[in-house]
Amino acid sequence: MSSALSATPAVLTIELEPSAIMQSRPPEPLSRDSADLLAGPIADDLRRIVGESVADAGLIFPAALYDLTELLQPGLPMVEALLDIYRGSLRGGPFQPQLLAIGSAGGRFPQASIAPQRALGSGPLLALPFALVAPGEQLDPIRQTIESVLLEKGRASLATDRAVRQLMGVEPVHLSYATFHDLSALMKVQLEHAELGGLWQLIEAALYQPDEIHVVDLEPGNRFIGYAGEVWTPWLTFDGLAQKQQTNSADTQAQYAQWAQAQRQTMAGLASHGIGLHIVEPLTGVYAQEAEVALSIAKAHHLDDQIPWYRETIVAPDGEHDTAVVTLTEHLTNALGTIAYTALVQAPDGTLLGLVNDYPTQAHGIDAIVEHWQAQAGATGATFHIERPGNITASGEPAHLQPWLEYQGQA
């Protein structure tokens, strides 16, 4: 009795000139007819590189180009989706080696789960993924051969190069085949060269060691706790950093800019790989040396993922008194843009009713914070000011954010 179907993935990498792709999107998926035209040269390449035994396995691929981040995701969902599609094509019958090229209709795949994102600026290294499918014991020797020879001998043929150029409308600098492990090695080198080694550690753990807890601490003070394809990270505030370091405004601004930049880069990298991310209260226990303790506390104190900001309450808003004025002060740096808002809530006589610092934790958090406080003011009939002094407004030692009170910003 044969074993269950298994799949081993690989890709045809398509390197483009950066100038040709960075300001545009990858091409649309090929139609079904064009996908069939591309299938032949790719199958011929694999027989030449891997050997005739590859013909005993099925071959399935979506005729589209993907950014590497779309493929290297926890659980390798692209591979699972291709295996499911192949299994479905058998209609419950026994395994048959066949060539399945998935094309689009009207520019869309029938299976939304494998549709390419075609994000602006993807690349310059794009990939056309495929999977070889067969019963496990039949696929094992093919898998071993692929892992050992594909990168070394995997230059694409002239026929494949011609088909890619004509059908996809791109001008490749280089075409070659690689395994998913090869892609991982390449991404590791790229990220470490960009001084983002900590990000790679988290991605690698999510891909290959999801059952282990991985804690990554970055030099500016960022902490990320990875487990089961997800990551928890405490949100350090400007005031919190100043209190911890006992620094004045100028020193805190420099240090917090480093922390915020590292936080945004790492979070964006994790999100691009489909790794779930949770913002956590910056409690002392989250920074525990014992990974199990840190993860347990992080899970117990993570914020609502639907709220795109982290709130630091200085004076809790007083709902028992009439609100006359809500003033929102934007804090920003030239390099990072908006890092926080300070909301000042006052009574008609100027009495302080509330003071909070809101930090956007997601891309749409900036607009969401403004809309929230504008709605709060509207609900009570209060006047709403938004002040943009163009920098970080802070004072004291240790430093703390403060509202802009001169009303000379862009109200």
Model description:
- By secondary structure, the protein is α+β, with helices and mostly antiparallel strands.
- The chain folds into 3 domains: 5-191, no CATH class; 211-300, no CATH class; 309-401, 2-Layer Sandwich (Nucleotidyltransferase, domain 5).
- The chain contains 12 helices and 17 strands.
- It has helices at residues 18-21, 32-50, 68-71, 77-89, 136-153, 158-168, 180-193, 197-208, 238-245, 249-272, 291-300, 365-380; strands spanning 5-15, 58-62, 66-67, 99-102, 125-135, 174-179, 214-217, 223-227, 230-234, 276-280, 309-315, 325-333, 337-346, 352-360, 383-387, 394-395, 400-401.
- The strands form 4 sheets. Strands 1, 2, 3, 4, 5 and 6 form a 6-stranded mixed beta sheet that branches. Strands 11-14-13-12-15 form a 5-stranded mixed beta sheet, covered by helices on one side.
- The protein is elongated, with a radius of gyration of 26 Å.
- The protein starts with a strand and ends in a 10-residue tail after the last strand.
Label the structural class.
alpha+beta
Approximate helicity band: 25-40%
Main pleated-sheet profile: 6 strands, mixed
The proportion of residues in beta strands is 15-25%
Number of domains: 3
Instruction: Report how far apart the termini are.
Output: 75 Å
Note the run of SSEs as H and E: EHHEEHHEEHHEHHEEEHHEHEEEEHEEE
Ranges where pLDDT stays below 50 over 5 or more residues in a row are none
Oligomeric description of these chains: single chain
Overall outline: elongated
Question: Mean of residue pLDDT?
Answer: 93
What is the number of E strands?
17
- Tell me the Rg in angstroms: 26 Å
Number of helices: 12
